[in-house]
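Margin note: ligand = LLP.
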Amino acid sequence: MSNVWPNSATRGTDGALCIAGVDVRDAAAQHGTPLFIFDEADVRARAREYRDAAERVGARKVYYAAKAFLSTAVARWVYEEGLGIDVASGGELAVALRAGIPGTDLLLHGNNKSMIEIEAALEAGVARIVVDSFEEIVRVADAAMRAGIVQPVLVRLTIGVEAHTHEFIATAHEDQKFGFSVASGAADEAIRRIVKLPSLEFRGLHSHIGSQIFDTDGFEEAAVRIVTFIDHLRTDQEVDVTELDLGGGMGIAYLPTDEPLSIDDLASHVALIVARECQSLGLAMPALAFEPGRAIVGPAGITVYEVGTVKPVELDDVVRTYVSVDGGMSDNIRTALYDAQYTIELASRTSNAELMLVRVVGKHCESGDIVVRDAYLPSDLVPGDLLAVAATGAYCRSMASNYNYLPKPAVVGVCDGNTSVVLRRETLDDLLALDPGA
Ligand code: LLP
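Resulting structure:
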C-alpha cells in the first residue's frame, strides 16, 4: 500500500484492510466505530529511527511530543525505544508518570504553566523545564527554592523565522504567544534574570519553529540565528549555552504525493549547520535535543468509520456525493481547522465499481464538518461499509472533543495479529457523570 498507511498495512485475501495482521472489520466489530488503530511496531520503529539518527549526530536526547497523542501504552512504547517525553500540561505529565516514565526523562513545556503544574513537575524531578515568560521564571524559581532544589531550565526563543507551514502551527515568527523574542532583547533579559537565581540552572535554549514542515530551510535559518545569539550571550553576558533543543516539526505524508524529509537527513543537516556556525565563531557545540510528535505517531495511526448515508448532490457541472460517517470534527478537527488533506479508502472490501467524487463528512451540526474534502471512492458504496483514513495517529484523538455529545472513540493498538485497548471508547455515562443534574 502507499506510504501514507502504517508499515504493516495490507489487503487481506478478500480485500479488507489489515493492520499488523488484524482485519479492520474485526477490530471495528469488537470496539465500535469510529475507531483509531495504531500499529505498535510502526510507532516503535519510528521512535527508534529518531533515536538512532539523534545518536548518529551526537544529540543528547529525543523527547516524544506527547501532545500528538498520549496514553500510558504509547508513552511506554516510545520510552522503551529510548525516547524521553515532552509534556505540555499537568495532565500530560500525570499520564507519563502513570506510565512509569521517570521524571529524569521528561521535559515540561507550556506558555502558561500553573503553579500546580510547576510544583508537580518539580516533585517528579523533570529533567528540564522550558521557561516561556518573565512571570514563569519567578514562579519556577520560587517553587524550586521552596522545594530546596536547583531546577535545570531552557529558555524558549522566538527567533523570527517564518516556517513554511499553516499559520496556526507556525510558532517562531515574532507576532505570537510563545517564547522570548531575540530581536527585542527579551531573551537576553530572561537569561540575565535566570542566571542570578540560585534555584535555577540555565542549561540552554529551545526553539520550535512550527509543525508539518517539509524543507530544511526554516530549521537551517533558525540554527544560524540561534548560534549567533549563543555567541552574543557569551560576549555580552559571559554565559555558556550547553544545550540546544530544536523542538519538533517534521512533516509526514498525508497524501501519496507528499514527500517528507528523512529524519537522518534533517538531523545530520541541522547538526552540521550548528557545528559549522559554532566552529566559525569559536564556540563549543551545544548538545542537541529534538521533540518529534507527529512524525512518531502520525503515520502509524488510522481511523476507521462506518458509512451511514450516501447522498448525491447535483451541482451545476458535477455530482458530488456526500458520504456521512459516524464521527467527524469531534475525532478529527484538522480538516476544519487547517484545511488538512487526507487519504481515504474503502476498508471493509475492495470494489471494481467506477469511482465517484465524494466529500466525506461527519455527523455534526456544521457544514464545515468535513473529514476529507475531495476524494474518489467506489460508486457502489453503501451504508455499513467501512472507510479508513490514513495518517490520523497525531493530533486527532488528542484534539478530540465531545461536540454534539459524541463520546470519544476507542484507540486500539495492533501487533502481530493481536489487538489491545489503548484507550477505551467513552460512553454516554462517562459524559453524563459530569452533569450533577443528569
Ligand atoms: N515541541 C514543541 C514545543 C511543540 O510546540 C510541538 C508542537 C512539538 C514539539 C511537536 O511538533 P511535531 O513534531 O508534532 O510537529 N495541532 C497541530 C499541530 C500543533 C503542534 C503544536 N506543537 C496539527 O494538528 O497539525
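The chain has a mean pLDDT of 96.
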